[in-house]
Design brief:
By secondary structure, the chain is an all-alpha fold. The chain has five helices and no strands. Helix 2 packs antiparallel against helix 3.
C-alpha cells in the first residue's frame, strides 16, 4: 500500500515551514473527528451521509499524496451513493494508514 507523504504540502508552501505546520495541524485536528463520523454513519447504514464523509476525507487523502487511495475513495463514494459498500475494507485500510502516519508527525 502506498504511504502518506508531505510532498503536496511542501510544494504548496514554497518552503514556508509555518504554513506547512499549520496545514498539518489542521489535518491532524480534523481527520480523527471526520473518521469517527464516517464510522458512525457506516455502522448506521446511512450511506448517503457516509458518502459525504468519504467526500470530505478524500481531500485529506489527496493532500497526503495518496493518489491510488484517492481513486479508491472516489469509487467508494460512488458505491455508497448507490447503496453499496464495495471497497469499504480498502477505504478503511487507508484510514488506518493515515491515522498511523499522523500519529508520527
Amino acid at each position: 500500500m502506498e504511504q502518506p507523504n508531505l510532498s503536496y504540502i511542501n510544494s504548496m508552501s514554497g518552503g514556508d515551514k509555518a504554513f506547512e505546520q499549520k496545514l498539518i495541524d489542521i489535518i491532524k485536528g480534523e481527520f480523527p473527528e471526520e473518521k469517527k463520523v464516517y464510522f458512525d454513519n457506516i455502522a448506521a447504514e446511512n450511506y448517503k451521509l457516509t458518502a459525504e464523509n468519504v467526500h470530505k476525507l478524500k481531500h485529506k487523502i489527496s493532500i497526503l499524496g495518496l493518489e491510488k487511495s484517492y481513486e479508491i475513495a472516489v469509487a467508494f463514494e460512488n458505491n455508497l451513493l448507490e447503496g453499496e459498500t464495495t471497497l469499504q475494507e480498502e477505504f478503511e485500510a487507508i484510514l488506518t494508514t493515515i491515522t498511523n502516519y499522523l500519529q508520527q508527525l
